[in-house]
């Protein structure tokens, strides 16, 4: 039975009485957490020795403990200070944990530090009155809260909403909780108002429901429920009595603690207890009296019954027993049914209340969205001209972006047209969805249309008449019970989405006294209902300075029931703090899919109804086509501006100049200024415009002082170190940039013109301000830079040094500056390029980097505004057919800065060469001279439509791109200038080049003092043998490594289809070998990529080798014996051969014997004879399948060994035979597949250690890839001595 807590006639006294009970309930709810955490603290601070008292551990004198009287210290009267390393460490650790480093040592018994965690906790209590409190359960409310405030450990157990700002700030929520206890205990009249009582309950309930620990604590949950019962008078009489006793015990504890407690409060508490006891006593007396009366009546009735049924006792007893049993069953059944009905009714009532609450919240959200969100401005720059979203909306162009395992973003070309594609994958609801898009592409409009469709999901779709409807499946989003739409730019000071919903939605839809119940309902909804949260404008949200969040927290939202859709600019999602694992599905919005339909919708909204709509639309589209403004249709914001500007100036089309963004935004700015001041004025020769795009304006000149000052403000805010106030700011921030006299005037002008907007902000004093759109702020900031170029060095340079990664965030500013003042843009691009070089990522395989795209946009903007001397700086070039015209403008001024160059040509290059360049000279090709690229590290050339030439090549070609390498031969110049001194990697992919150009490239690389990797992929190398051009379309692929006159060439064997549609294997070509002729190579290695080298053009290779006058060491890994001419400078020859017969071995020795110089030979070969297989080629074979390896017994080679041992011109060092014991090992120790049979001959095996083999990569390749059919191999080492040396020795 529920009992009322209204124990007194005065309502305010009853409120005070409830507050006392509430404090005791809260204390009990916190006790378990406190006890648990104190045990953890005990384990951290350590355990005492168990023998030291607190008096021993505190030096004398120490204030405030030591008070000497007659030269004696009362505190140390029984114990003298004495050091204890164990206890002193515990004492020091306790002091570290104390927020104010002043533990209450009088409260604690140091002897119990070894076993009792409560004695540790008592050090954080108030200094007096708690020494005899034995447990945390017997402490009072003030003691519990004091421990949580004074011990810094508990700041990890509570959320920031409970301890921010931190103690002792009076605004700290936990400090406010402690103040509630003080207010209740120290009241003089025991009276509390209704409003204060409700505030107490809300504050205490919020503490008990803190999400970090208490929300999951059973004691806290129980206490939270009891608070709710107490607040709503649902307490049982027994429970109320127990709580009152607890409150009275609190009174006794307060007295023990020495705190002041009013006599009136004590009197009131005693009266409450007395009244409870009295009510309980009266109830017991009534129950006793009723029992006695019942007994007497029962006796009387029993006697009457006995007399009446005496004659028929047996029958009566049976009937009576039957009736009693039946009655008992009925009573039990009725009682059970009643209990069930009560429980069902309670559950049904709670469920009905919940459903009514959800339905009411949904209805209010729909009404709120219909009144506010679903009406959007026709122009972003004119908030007053708003229309219903359905009147002006056009389907967006949205594509899904797939995130590959390696992090690569791959765009799905299929357009997303339904909500099911947006929210579901394989019929499974997606949890975290991100839609990215550049400024003005329609992200916000798309989000608003989603909200409108949800609000009207039960109404019939209007898309039946549309030719290609999009996002008409409203039933898909009807599955979301609730939709919460929040604009992140309006919540810059908040980190939690739940709080944003409360501020932006609940606080605006409900009365203040209703909000608390709706907050509780919201928590339950987020756990149970399928909801959609739309976070609009992540890039406009800045986390508070004390937070390192990249996006607002979704704490409290169930991942199983809640879907989150976030819109943002791409640069924000590039933040490394936003992991790919956090993005379940990524989409990109690229504007509107049908500009024609969009223009028609906008024109329908603004032109006079008497005008012919279709004719007007056709006229506008013709204007767009003539002015080449189609590119602006990708931005709904700018396209709507073009449409509205055109409508305002239909009679004067010349008003809109070209497609310059600067001129477009100048027109925007002019139309805004006209609203605040309609006076006209013009720039002329006597009063020239500050920037070119202002020249033809009519309303800017009279307002130029306002604009100059607003541009300065826009610049300073945009480049401020306090990023949280760079976009949205308050009156104080705005006033910092104006004098007192001009602040009001400038602000009112900006507000009237619409350049600035303001909004009510409940969390701030006054209003919050922002520029009407971020691009407007960027345009004004660029205008300030153009008028004051010195700020680039003074401000922007410092800003980028502090925020290197933000250089892409000011991209739009650079583009605007390019159209206003190119010399300032050149300087700004140099700063940004420095940041880009530091922040550079691996180049994209199919598109330029973001910074290059920015530079290209700046070039086009400068050209549209007739700016000369475009010298924008760029170090990473990616040149394709789509950007060659722009790159040609700045290439000549960036050759000394370029670090990475990628040139890609395709079969469909620009048809007219005039489109390649923007200068008046109109050269017939785009020319890249590598000789000037001193910082170039990586060079990638791809495509057959470029011509690679040097000074020795014919100067005639129809190719549109020429790559010139003017490498001077050192023999012709005593001190040649360095060419490509920084190059590290070169990739030639499907290019056509001459052997002369390739030879010049090799000469350049050989002159460098560091290693360079050069890779050829399917290249056509043209031979110039015999002074005649011989085309060799052999699709050569090779990997070359050069370093300090060392040359390593690995040629890839691959197949191709001949003109007769037959398969053939391509190995080498004459042009490749010609490129080596005459080089200053001292060490040369020739092999295949993973296998041996099969030489088809032996004569060309021999000629090239014989021309290497400085070659000292030659290493070659071949399939079979080849007869090559060796240069006279050769001293060391290493030959690895898959198969060598005895006859071929003798032939090889004879060739070496004919040399005129002494050569040290290392010969490794398989004992086999190789012949070609006649097979029909298919993809299942590789090049090794084309040959057959026939083993040759090692005895066949013994005769040659005997001849070598007796020859005078040969000094044998090794003749070692190996037997195969298993197949090749492609990893690990390759030699483990062979065992040494032994060395043959007398004194032949002089070098027993194969140290050089371990270091020889070609030897390792030979061992790993030698054919498995070869069962024996021979390793030889010998010195070949020429005849001239023999005659000298003789």
UniProtKB/TrEMBL annotation:
InterPro entries: DUF4559, P-loop_NTPase. Pfam families: DUF4559. This is NACHT domain-containing protein. It comes from Dreissena polymorpha.
